[in-house]
Molybdopterin molybdenumtransferase (Methylomonas albis), 414 residues
Amino acid sequence: MTDICYPNKHNLLSVQQALLEIRKAIEVITDLEVIALPQALGRILADSVVSPIDIPPQRTAAMDGYAFAASDISAGHPPKMQLIGTAWAGQPFLAPQMPGQCVRIFTGAVVPSFADSVITQEQIEVDGNTVSLPLDWQPYKNIRAAGSDVKQHEELVSAPKKLTARDLSLLAAAGVDKISVKRKLRIGFFSTGDELVPLGEPLATGQIYDSNRYLLAGLLSDPNHMVSDLGIVVDDQFKLEQTFRHAAQQHDVIISTGGASVGDADFVKQTLEKCGQVSFWKLAIKPGKPLAFGKIGECWFFGLPGNPVAVLVTYEKFVKPGLERLAGAPATQALRLRVRCDSPLKKSHGRQEYQRGILCQSADGELVVRLAGQQDSHQLKVASQSNCFIVMDAASSGIDAGEMVTVEPFSAVL
Ligand SMILES: Nc1nc2c(c(=O)[nH]1)N[C@H]1C(S)=C(S)[C@@H](COP(=O)(O)OP(=O)(O)OC[C@H]3O[C@@H](n4cnc5c(N)ncnc54)[C@H](O)[C@@H]3O)O[C@H]1N2
Ligand code: MOO
């Protein structure tokens, strides 16, 4: 891990540099596990999968109708065929056929070997065993070729990939019942602060409920994570050190909130220095400036600031990409849109800001954003009501209402 030097106390690392540093430092875990397909949603595919079969395995009908050989149809008015049986999905028609004969067929049924055309039932007339085609009947329609979706030995899903429901259905169609995925990450998180009280206890003067652990538990919810809530640690350097050392032995990543700044009870950075290595601390971002990133033994460490909205922002911008990298997932990128902003935005020079906004779409499809409310980093209600970040570059000094801004809708990634 490279140690980054800060020539003076105001030298804050940029968001881009910090992200680069995280991606450079963290190496993908190599351990794999083989799991059953139904357990694989959202897991990271470790080995590419090729199809053991053609999909569909045989020629099948795409519509309910009648299967016949186009060359059998004479120029009658209307052309007629003799019905000799039925091909059901799962029950092929295997009997021999004579010229001029056809078979009733249903969607998904194997097309009998003699047939090269299926005509839909809406287009024909049936009288007993006689099927009459319209004069404008068309040959070679409504048949899906074997392998028309995927050919045998073709790559189905290429690794690495976070598996979607679409991938699982494709793998299932090929009969793939077990796949190789990256193992889950062991992640421990805790809050620090003497003022914090867990849910279910009354508040004394000066105390607040610990909300960060519930935010983090929600943000960390992912099938690739095995998450442990390590509770609240008081502002005591010795207790913090014990927690760091113990948690680092049991997890791939630990995440703390609070105590990351410069107050007399903020021990996170110095404890990290004592137990491990600090890669960087303090970023040109708002909210989220006092973020500490480093390593304790083999365990990665993210010391997030205490303010809840700073936790939200630093998780999305740094922890999430770090976990994706460690888990072996392809890096995702927040979807960015340029939209009109209906609120004036204030901004002080120097830090990249992630303001909380509400993005709306008008009836004619135009996207417009407005500020969700006041922007102090303790204001959880505004964060709860927002649906996007309004991203403002470090150099920006704010905008007037009506100007264009960059927004990142929550949960929209490329
Ligand atoms: N003199 C300076 N003061 C501060 C600076 C600075 O650069 N110089 N930075 C400010 C910034 S920016 C932030 S962000 C905060 C972060 O400080 P800490 O990481 O040390 O966090 P705390 O002081 O422990 O807490 C800040 C704030 O958040 C509340 N908090 C903490 N944990 C939780 C929790 N689990 N659930 C809910 N709320 C929590 C805590 O009570 C404080 O109000 O420092 C600024 N100060
Ligand atoms: O930047 Mo702090 O992160 O104000 O909340």
User: Anything to note?
Assistant: Residues 5-9 have pLDDT under 50 and may be disordered. The longest helix spans residues 308-327. Residues 286-289, 305, 307, 310, 377 surround molybdate ion (ligand 2) (CB under 6 Å). The chain has four domains: 15-31+183-327, 33-55+148-182, 60-144, 337-409.
